[in-house]
Amino acid sequence: MTNDQLKMTNVGIVGAGGYAGVTLLSILLRHPNVKVVWLMSEEAHKGKNISALYPQMRGICDLTCDTLDNLDKQLVSVDLIFLALPHGIAINYVPKMIKAGKKVVDLGADYRFHDEAVFKKWYNLDHPDKAVLAEAVFGSPELYKEQIRKARLIGNPGCYPTASILGLAPLIKNKLIDTGSIVVDAKSGVSGAGRGVNLKVHYCERNEGVMAYAVNNHRHMGEVSYQAGLLAGQPVNVTFVPHLMPMTRGIHATCYGKLISEKSKVKIEELVKLYKEFYKEAPFVRVYETGEPCTKNVAGTNYCDIALSINSESQTVIVMSVIDNLVKGAAGQAVQNMNLICGFEETTGLKAIALYP
Amino acid sequence: MTNDQLKMTNVGIVGAGGYAGVTLLSILLRHPNVKVVWLMSEEAHKGKNISALYPQMRGICDLTCDTLDNLDKQLVSVDLIFLALPHGIAINYVPKMIKAGKKVVDLGADYRFHDEAVFKKWYNLDHPDKAVLAEAVFGSPELYKEQIRKARLIGNPGCYPTASILGLAPLIKNKLIDTGSIVVDAKSGVSGAGRGVNLKVHYCERNEGVMAYAVNNHRHMGEVSYQAGLLAGQPVNVTFVPHLMPMTRGIHATCYGKLISEKSKVKIEELVKLYKEFYKEAPFVRVYETGEPCTKNVAGTNYCDIALSINSESQTVIVMSVIDNLVKGAAGQAVQNMNLICGFEETTGLKAIALYP
Amino acid sequence: MTNDQLKMTNVGIVGAGGYAGVTLLSILLRHPNVKVVWLMSEEAHKGKNISALYPQMRGICDLTCDTLDNLDKQLVSVDLIFLALPHGIAINYVPKMIKAGKKVVDLGADYRFHDEAVFKKWYNLDHPDKAVLAEAVFGSPELYKEQIRKARLIGNPGCYPTASILGLAPLIKNKLIDTGSIVVDAKSGVSGAGRGVNLKVHYCERNEGVMAYAVNNHRHMGEVSYQAGLLAGQPVNVTFVPHLMPMTRGIHATCYGKLISEKSKVKIEELVKLYKEFYKEAPFVRVYETGEPCTKNVAGTNYCDIALSINSESQTVIVMSVIDNLVKGAAGQAVQNMNLICGFEETTGLKAIALYP
Amino acid sequence: MTNDQLKMTNVGIVGAGGYAGVTLLSILLRHPNVKVVWLMSEEAHKGKNISALYPQMRGICDLTCDTLDNLDKQLVSVDLIFLALPHGIAINYVPKMIKAGKKVVDLGADYRFHDEAVFKKWYNLDHPDKAVLAEAVFGSPELYKEQIRKARLIGNPGCYPTASILGLAPLIKNKLIDTGSIVVDAKSGVSGAGRGVNLKVHYCERNEGVMAYAVNNHRHMGEVSYQAGLLAGQPVNVTFVPHLMPMTRGIHATCYGKLISEKSKVKIEELVKLYKEFYKEAPFVRVYETGEPCTKNVAGTNYCDIALSINSESQTVIVMSVIDNLVKGAAGQAVQNMNLICGFEETTGLKAIALYP
Q1: DSSP H/E element including B82
Q2: Which of these, B246, B244, B254, lies nearest to B188 by C-alpha position?
Q3: Segment D258-270 mean pLDDT
Q4: Is the ipTM of this complex over 0.95?
Q5: Which of B262, C126, D129, D357 lies 20 to 30 Å (CA to CA) from residue D76?
Q6: Please, what is the average pLDDT of chain B?
Q7: DSSP string of B296-347?
Q8: Do C216 and D311 touch (CB under 8 A)?
Q9: Is the minimum CB–CB distance between C347 and chain B shorter than 8 Å?
């Protein structure tokens, strides 16, 4: 028996019918240490073959979709469960999974906040099981790798927060910018809104249609601010404005912050060096010395590409941070967390090169 | 002889082969008080019918393109000239036009700055004729309508500055925000880069490809800062980051500024009211009471749609300002200026409704 | 009182909430001989301002939407009614309108077929009032202008049939091709599917997603075949395959037909001449002598642009025919029909130049 | 030493700066049996790191580009060479490679035709070395797998021909359709035109811009006809019309052919069965029993997805065949051919699942 076979992990995916879910499935089907044992999705998908929902799966995967109604029965066959669900559902099922000794990576928002008051402020929900919440780890491997390695429950970061926090963390941790001045202007592809249908995702409404939305009340503003606060060691209120772009995949977060006066002479080369140092153990963060990152450069990959600039007249640092919202912003990061939890090499199954052009 | 015939103006277009030029032609061909007498474009277009360059013109316009080499000969037949050229060319021809008694609307950058040092800083050029420069008026009718009415030379604003300054002017003029804190995060359709070919405008590079460019050195940063400074009555350094979007037309400028402390209690309703008051004589500015503006809402029109929001925790005002970069950001605004110069109704020829979807 | 005022026509639009409806509204608001008196839409839109549904209408039109429930009350105030509805609804209301002495242009399918059996085959519906059906005229001004001038009820052609029939008519009428060999491969923008939401029109499903649909059972195959048969003087079965393109507006119909053997020596120049002759009274058909038509060339206009080619080895004529599906394929053609019915100049209100790029 | 190491093959890529070249590089960098030893591209790229041309390669590959001038020196280090060049260049270098004992997969057109007269008709070129031409095999593994296995020089099929011929082969080989009636209406993403810049690939010209091009004179018409003729055992003239779509990747070939009269009763189920049988040894052809294939279903993969329909009234078979033009239509198929030549499993390195959405 080889080392690889020893490490084979059985997983189930809840929420396989969504874009994050099917992206997860695609990665896991090619992961050498994983066997996908079952899929769950919404009631309307029950009994349907995944290739009926996603024709690209024809000839590749013919699992059928079950629902959470059968969780008890299905739990026994897996070691680890991924949940890719709207917020507020996972909290009703995760405690049972944890108690059954399973590992859990939750791609939703339910386990991203340790502070219940903050969670309640943004999601208007109470956690039924505080003990389970208490052991959740925020699944940002670039910031919390050691905690993740020991965890059994991961709150996988949101897509906007992933791009924003990776862009801002070195500045905040090193106290280079005035945290009261932070602005994140984020641009997202339409897939961030999910596969559900509504006028906002209608092709004809988005094509040639750039617009801001959820200004000052997007829940990811809460997540970015909360995580920024943890890094700063004090509360931070980030100004966060998300925009819909006429594209399918990708997030471009442009982050702005005023240099604190003692740091007003910092040079761009020093900043780049500092970022490279900060991310030296992060295989998926690429810090640019020249050029600006484009969402295409990371399409289909788990990379976060970052470039920096300083406006010396206004003393403003500009950070450009791009990810694929469905990979590093969701499914890829979830697999990265799984790799850490399960003791696999961090990059296993995640070595895709961007599909370019 | 009717009133309309009396007012008929003969115009020539220099730079008709570009996107701004052909947009101008399209508007002017339907303008009741204008006759387009000739077109000029680059050497390679000489002698070509405009419909060979732009097949949508078949059966509509069959003017052929001349070049600036024949300006002397062509000057006599027109009352007013539009120039839609890269910077640095117009300064060599406009003085002669003005001296010949012609009116001029320059869509390029050459006559947007009265301060030669600022112009030189951003464009590295000297003006050969200071007297002509001195009489140029910055063609923003919402800010300088009376001066425009009396002018004979207009420096038509750039596309990014149009969206940015219209978004910021009421805040700056009313001293509501700290001008040192202004950030403009601007998103543009690809047509802003013109019809010339290069890798940046290749379909396959832009589709799914959002990226910042010219960070901290885009010339429109100079124009926005200069105009903001005029409004503020003191120098202003705006942090300005332009981004390329995968779309053809439209600019979405998201503007951020910190409320000055005395104004920290200002309510959103008051701000909206102040904007409406500021733009009460501006037929092409629409201030939203609810909702966010989308680039589609103004496609093909001369409107600038503006919405506002306040992040009370960070004391930041957010202004969303959208235009069609080729219309309000170029050709439409040029016609609006022509209407004012020539004594026509300001909106003549500019009543198009957005092509939606 | 001027001639224009004499001719002012009051109209109502049923189905104003859809893409064809709002396109119609946009054209009519700028039509010099028309006053739009009321709008009707679906129940969910009742009482809503049109600018709440379509923000581009802010400051331009503030009519609110009524529903067909109030038709009796609203009928008196108009001279002519446009209906832009899914098939099967108009037949329940049009007879009453006609009996009340109103003119009607129906953009739906209900009055496009005189042969009830054919209509029933494709739509599975019976006409409640055969007399009204009998007086309907198929609203293709290029083919039936004189009948339209005398009509009071128009069945406005479908979008695909408009592009296809205009492309094929000269070949069929002149018996140049074997009608048994006709293939129409049609490519449409997503707006042809309407504003209703479903997975097919989700941005993420259509972007980068070209596919055929409704192969061999699209209702427009029935309409194309029926109209081709009328032109041929005998039944025709066109092979028709529609495809969805990742774009908003436009149809490109590529039509193929084998030359009948006696015509095997026909030259392309002769064909072009024949087309130009055939459409010499058609202000909106542009026959190209060189080059291929692009959907962009007609975007936002009422033009149908046509180019021709002959594959001499396979004896196949290829016709490329492009329209804007919402203008010439729906609202524009409807206004063209209204102009003819009401005695206005055929092109009134329809002189837009393509929004390019 | 393991089996895998034994099989490690050293390869060079000529034309790495193009879209097909970089796609090839991406696949080969993840291929377990291949080492990419060097890259060559055009003069302007000489000495540049591949990640300077393609930023997605940062941190993944840092090979620099050489040019064909150094072929002699570089030849010794590789076992197999891929060429991804415009036609007419490879013929000057391939004979030397073959004589040096190297295997060659040419992605260009130079070795796709055994009949020199046909090659000359379409490309106006003579082959300098007929012996080398004589041993080339047309690299369509679904049709010529055994010959490929024994070959050392492959003429990799063009993108349009791949989709078209795979769609038509079972019909032609089984003499089901009249080969004189074949029409292929092909729709391609813009990447098929390569990375070179010109107005046709300008974002603003293609977005919302569907058009036919090279009607009746596209070189791939020659390739499709030639290959169809080989399958039919007699000359075939296919009517072939390519169209540019506003998308980056993918080809949708819609193929039409009249059933010969003896086959007029064939049922769709029989056709589907026949296709499945025909492609039973083809791991990358997926024949659909229901539904239509979408270009998205194969994006980034080596699949060719095929669906069928019969118009019984016109006795026409319709075949919808989709591929990713850069993978199955170029680089993926080239790797598939390499796998066969080198004795690797046919699907090695080609198991990607479509990036969806």
Answers
A1: strand B80-83
A2: B244
A3: 94
A4: yes
A5: D129
A6: 96
A7: GGGTTS--EEEEEEEETTTTEEEEEEEE-TTIIIIIHHHHHHHHHHHT--TT
A8: yes
A9: no
Residue found under tokens 């464009």: B123
User: How many helices, marked H, and strands, marked E, lie in chain C?
Assistant: 13, 14
Is B55 close to C293, i.e. CB distance below 8 A?
A: yes
User: Is A159 one of the catalytic residues?
Assistant: yes
Which residues of C form the catalytic set?
159
Domains parsed from chain C with CATH numbers: 3-156+329-342 (3.40.50.720), 160-325 (3.30.360.10)
Residue with tokens 């490809």: B209
Residues of B in contact with C357 (CB under 8 A): 19, 191, 195, 248-249
Exposure class string for B70-108: b at 16+ Cβ within 10 A, else e:
ebeebbeebbbbbbbbebebbbebbbebbeeebbbbbbb
Note whether D42 and D22 are within 8 A (CB): no
* Position A3 pLDDT exceeds 60: no
3-state secondary structure at position C327: helix
C-alpha–C-alpha distance, residues A178 and A261, integer Å: 9
- The dihedral over CA atoms of C148, C152, C158, C164, expressed in degrees to the nearest 10, equals -10
Round to whole Å and give the CA distance between A252 and A246.
13
Identify the bridge partners of residue A236 per DSSP, sorted by sequence position: none
C70: number of Cβ within 10 Å: 12
How many beta-carbon contacts under 8 Å exist across B and D?
Answer: 53
pLDDT confidence band for B63 (50 / 70 / 90): very high
Contacts 24+ apart (CB under 8 A), D134-137: D135/D98, D136/D106, D136/D111, D136/D112
Distance from CA of B324 to the nearest CA of A (A): 11
Q: Which chain A residues contact residue C195 at CB under 8 A?
A: 199, 202, 204
* Closest C-alpha to A250, from D357, C246, B193: D357
Would the pLDDT of D6 be above 80?
no
* Structure-block tokens of residue B191: 């047509």
pLDDT digits 0-9 by tens, C105-116: 999 999 999 999
Q: Which residues of chain C have pLDDT under 70?
A: 1-7
From chain C, the residues in CB contact with D213 under 8 A are 292
- CA dist., res. D12 & res. D33, Å (int): 14
Q: What is the largest CA-CA distance in chain C?
A: 64
Q: Do D356 and A300 touch (CB under 8 A)?
A: no
- B-contacting residues of C 218-277, CB under 8 Å? 248-249
CA-CA distance, A246 to A248, in Å (whole number)? 7
Is residue A155 within 8 A of residue A136, CB to CB? The reply is yes
Q: CA-CA distance, A167 to D215, in Å (whole number)?
A: 49
Chains touching B (at least 3 CB pairs under 8 A) are: A, C, D
Per-residue confidence band for B263, with pLDDT thresholds at 50, 70 and 90: confident
Which residue in C27, C99, A237 sits closest to B352, CA to CA? C27
Beta strands in chain D (DSSP E): 9-14, 34-40, 65-66, 80-83, 103-106, 137-138, 153-155, 183-188, 211-212, 239-244, 251-258, 285-287, 304-311, 316-323
- What pLDDT, in 10s, does the model give residues D68-92? 999 999 999 999 999 999 999 999 9
Tell me how far apart the alpha carbons of residues B330 and C322 are, in angstroms, rounded to a whole number.
29
Rounded distance between C-alpha atoms, residue C155 and residue C136, angstroms:
6
For chain C, say whether B325 makes contact (Cβ under 8 Å): no
d(CA B12, CA B63): 11
Give me D316's structure tokens.
């026409």
Q: What amino acid occupies position A341?
A: I
- Chain A CB within 8 Å of residue C208 CB: yes
- Cα-based distances in Å from B154 to A305, B89, B134, B150, B337: 43, 15, 11, 10, 8
Amino acid, single-letter form, for residue B83: L
Q: Copy the structure tokens of residue D351.
A: 């198991």
pLDDT given for residue A6 in this prediction: 57
